[in-house]
Amino acid sequence: DTYLKRYDISNLDTLTSRAFIEGVDYRNYAVANAYSFQDLRSGVDDDQIPVILPDLRYEWQSDAGDYGGRYTVDASMVALTRDEGTDTRRLAVNGGWQLPYIGPMGNIYRVRAELQGLVYWLDAQPIPGSASSVNDSGTYGRLVPALTFDWRWPLVRQIGNVRQVLEPIAGIVLTPYSGSNALIPNEDSQDVEFDTTNLFETNRFPGLDRWDGGPRFNYGVRTGLYWPEAGYGEFFIGQSIRNGEDYEFDDGSGLRTQVSDIVMSTNLAPNKYFDLLWRARLDPRGMNLRRNEIIAGAGPDAFRVNVSYAKLDDTQFQGSTGDREAVQLQGNLRISKYWTATAAHLQDLGEDGGSLYTNLGLRYTDECFDLLLFADTSYFRNRDIQPETTFGFRFRLANLN
Questions:
Q1: How many other CB atoms are there within 10 angstroms of residue 372's CB atom?
Q2: What is the pTM of this model?
């Protein structure tokens, strides 16, 4: 299990093997997958990790009608088989229709109606509230309609060479709470990441096994400045309000309570020498940041410094004993046309934190090959892996990758 980390080949915790065939035809997409996994973490039983065969998916979208409306169909069939645990077979079909409209004042509207249907065939599924040895086998289904109405109004004005954009956005989702069944296993919707990218999605769960039910109102505002030579700065803030609490979401997801967490993001690139991305999630009840991430880079190509910072509070992780906070510094110095010096350091900023990783390197790259001389110090402990410093080199022929 520790082979890849011991020899600095990879930091992956799970190895994935995938065989697939896919095709794209105009607006249509189809793929057939098969997956198997090997978990390298301590205490994980591989017999309980599923083999996915098959995983079939098909997506279809019609041409625009007379008024711009489109029909969509998303269909999938997946089978999960385990040596120990629940075997799942799932058939899912989601049919939808959406109509965009641009008003005379520049208002942009979108109406979408959809109907999702799922059927599960389960073997050896534990019954909630019963002893672990009590299992159930059977067929279960779910049928959920949803109606979505989105509105946004991009307001633009020119101030000299700078273009300013202010865009209020709002959306209403009408869907019932009857989207989940306790007997249906949660295979693909466990890791919920609520941020600015999925605030206006009909279903904020990443998969199909759980449904983001209940009527809700989503709103936000995006503002931006854009100037010549591709410089820009953008900011977005938004929130969601639902009819009541949704216990399908964990406490730390930011979506369980009636009023959601506030999600924010900033993307700033005034010129080619500096860029910054900031993403955050704020608990409106205690006004504390549940998630805070910063990625920044400064300097020309000849000398570039990058900083990454992340802090996640303990509600993000089940069974967590505290917040997680870390910062990574990385720099590149181009000595000449072919030679570059690199350095990186990762630091845990938690109460019991400390240095996690330090790297120094000297790289030579030309049209034929790439040579890296490096010194790595790892403070990581995992079974037979102990903190150590490694000196070495890597050689790669460019034409053979």
A1: 16
A2: 0.86
Give the SS3 label for residue 230.
Answer: coil
SS3 readout for 135-194: EEEEEEEEEEEEEEEEEECCEEEEECCEEEEEEEEEEEEECCCCCCCCCCCCCCCCCCCC
- Structure tokens given for 366: 């030309």
Proportion of the chain in helix, strand, coil states, percent, rounded to 5: 5, 60, 35
pLDDT, one tens digit per residue, over 168-213 is 999 999 999 865 667 788 899 988 899 999 999 999 999 999 999 8
Which pair of tokens denotes residue 34?
A: 């098969």
Four-residue CA torsion sign, 188, 192, 198, 199: positive
Closest CA to 11 of 40, 37, 42: 40
Cα–Cα dist 291/379, whole Å: 25
Burial call 280-298: b when 16+ CB within 10 Å, e when fewer: bbbbeeeeebbbbbbeebe
For the record, the structure tokens of 181 come out as 């069944």
Which CA distances in Å does 113 have to 175, 235, 241, 387?
10, 30, 20, 56
Helix (H), strand (E) counts: the chain: 1, 20
